């Protein structure tokens, strides 16, 4: 059950299909709600559709982490996810504080998810740069 380059490529391909599908679900549901103004159960179903899509993405990531046997790759993925979650939680806390102090505005749509993605990406780049092998080294180990 070790993760191969082919499996990682399959995971990336799956995420490349999942992310546009997720955003399409969010925007389609949003347009439907704006035009039809559902109430009651229909409104709950509309709210559940993007949530279910997000749960599908989380399940895909969980499957990847379960199948990943390289401890370094798994730890790196977990660290990036934690940085993303921290960014999303901090953004949510900031917006809630604004509302608590009387702000009547509305945060941009998908703000937390965009912050999550940006923080995860910045963490991934930072870890890649900080763990780059020395120049001239063939295996990254000094001798």
- What is the global morphology? globular
Note the run of SSEs as H and E: HHHH
What is the first-to-last residue Cα distance?
A: 33 Å
Helix coverage percent of residues? over 70%
Overall number of strands: 0
Please identify the structural class as seen in this structure: mainly alpha
Tally of helical runs: 4
Unreliable stretches, pLDDT < 50, 5 or more residues?
A: none
Tell me the Rg in angstroms.
Answer: 19 Å
Largest sheet: none
| Mean of pLDDT | 86
Describe the structure.
The chain has helices at residues 5-36, 41-67, 71-100, 111-130. The chain is built from four helices and no strands. It folds into two domains: 1-69; 70-132. The longest helix has 32 residues, at 5-36. The radius of gyration is 19 Å and the shape is globular. It has 143 residues and is mostly helical.
Helices and strands, with pairings:
Elements: H1 5-36, H2 41-67, H3 71-100, H4 111-130
Helix pairs in contact: 1-2, 3-4
Summarize the structure.
It is built from four helices and no strands. It has 143 residues and is an all-alpha fold.
List keywords for this structure.
globular; mainly alpha; 143 residues; single chain; 4 helices
């Amino acid at each position: 059950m070790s993760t191969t380059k082919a499996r990682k490529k399959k995971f990336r391909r799956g995420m490349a299909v999942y992310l546009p599908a997720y955003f399409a679900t969010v925007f389609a549901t949003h347009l439907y709600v704006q035009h039809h103004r559902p109430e009651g159960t229909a409104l709950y179903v509309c709210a559940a559709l993007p949530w279910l899509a997000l749960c599908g993405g989380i399940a895909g990531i969980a499957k990847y982490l379960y199948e990943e046997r390289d401890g370094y790759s798994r730890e790196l993925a977990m660290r990036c996810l934690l940085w993303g979650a921290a960014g999303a939680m901090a953004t949510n806390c900031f917006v809630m504080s604004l509302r608590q102090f009387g702000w009547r505005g509305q945060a941009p749509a998908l703000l937390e998810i965009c912050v999550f993605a940006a923080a995860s990406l910045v963490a991934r780049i930072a870890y890649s740069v900080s763990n780059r092998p020395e120049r001239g080294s063939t295996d990254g180990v000094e001798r």
